[in-house]
Amino acid sequence: MNKVVFQDIGMRNYKEVWDYQENLLQQGVRLKQAGAQKPEHYLLFTEHTPVYTLGKNGKEEHVLINEAERVQKGVEYFHINRGGDITFHGPGQLVGYPIFDLDQFKPDLNWYLRSLEEVVILTLAEYGLQGERSKGETGVWLQPDVKGSERKICAMGIRCSRWITMHGFAFNINTNLSFFDYIVPCGIQDKKVASLETELGQAIEMNEVKEKMKRNFEKVFDISFT
Q: How far is C-alpha 62 from the chain's CA centre?
């Protein structure tokens, strides 16, 4: 059983946490290169001030507002080094960043992404919702096979260097979904975005979701938190 350092770092701007993740990843890479000791694993939970992030192979045209409009709405923008396309992060969204050395788990990115999805699927089940995978599309969906009703509740995008991960998932809890109207979320046309709040008809206590997610991380990844 791997031990993972858990840190709930609260509301932060995006660049601050991106830099922190990069530092943790590079620290782990140096340890692996030196062969002296195994890197520690981390799981960061945060909420971000409003920001659009575009993955390394994402398309700029999936941002549907111009810079002046974006600034007027108080939304930052970063083109970053994860996989995936454009997404939104903001208050009311639980963002999780695992910095895991997959050599100590299983060096398989497909297994890792499916495991992240499973954590969210198990958490949704505790709220009476059936989270599902959509063929060829990373993340967790509701009714992915019902034409016109497909809606994504959790987006995912990662980076991996020497089998150490960074970036992760963005799970809509009480998120203001109107921010998604100004992008093509994840580069996927004609599909909706959901949140726990919109599905259940009431605001959900964020700390409650965090505890459920932590328990399901322990179950799926066979870890314990320190």
A: 19
